[in-house]
Amino acid sequence: xxxxxxxxxxxxxxxxxxxxxxxxxxxxxxxxxxxxxxxxxxxxxxxxxxxxxxxxxxxxxxxxxxxxxxxxxxxxxxxxxxxxxxxxxxxxxxxxxxxxxxxxxxxxxxxxxxxxxxxxxxxxxxxxxxxxxxxxxxxxxxxxxxxxxxxxxxxxxx
Length: 158
Description:
Number of helices: 4
Strand content: 5-15%
Number of strands: 2
Helix content: 55-70%
Structural class: mainly alpha
Shape: elongated
Radius of gyration: 20 Å
Largest sheet: 2 strands, antiparallel
Strand order of the largest sheet: 1-2
């Protein structure tokens, strides 16, 4: 079975090259609440719900776009890492890929269910923000773990 939905293998290296620094720098800027003023822009918004103004459906808002830049870089690079072909893509790798994806969704939504029951207010908002990235992150971790186990067992058999 040919997997036409996967990126070429070279995208995996590009993805890792972007993902690792983006995730590290993104977390650091989030923890220290760093927002450089040169990234303050008026940007289009679909729904505006500001504390001091009326709610609007469309309009412009002043926003520091650093978080958006890192969010986009992390999502795109994670997609490259997660959904790039392996050097030798076969049906067993496809099976591992599918099982890892299902596992990642289960774990992600298990954490989300737990969060609905025990985490509230702004802490829950942070859970939801990180939840945008965790399905891909859990998939990448499990898939690569399973592939490394497969390679170790292949090395052992030789």
